[in-house]
Specification:
By secondary structure, the chain is mostly helical. It is built from 3 helices and no strands.
């Protein structure tokens, strides 16, 4: 049993598959080899996942990386001071005693 790749008769269809893969990858930058394979299947160019991945890598195709999330820049506006009594209420969530707390058995 030979493990050689076939040439000649199968060389021409691979060239058309390569060209079609390039076209799909240029239109759909976020398509990987699996999704490109699905599109090729729908166009009648069916092949195994191993062959598809080999051609995909040989063509130098890859999924383009997403850019990072934009974060807020600059300084935050300071909290305005209270203009009168009970104008602003704040809670210290580190030492919050309004919720259920674990005590040593005696409740107040």
């Amino acid at each position: 049993m030979s493990i050689q790749r076939r040439s000649g008769a199968n060389a021409r269809p691979i060239a058309s598959i390569r060209k079609e893969m390039q076209v799909i990858a240029s239109e759909r930058l976020r398509f990987g080899y699996r999704r490109i394979g699905i599109v090729l299947d729908r166009k009648g160019m069916s092949m195994t996942h191993k062959k598809l991945y080999r051609i995909y890598r040989e063509e130098g195709l890859s999924v383009k990386r997403r850019r990072g999330r934009k974060r807020a820049r600059g300084t935050a506006t300071p909290m305005p001071s209270a203009e009168g009594v009970n104008a602003r209420w704040s809670l210290d969530f580190v030492s919050d005693s309004f919720g259920a707390r674990a005590s040593s058995g005696s409740s107040p």
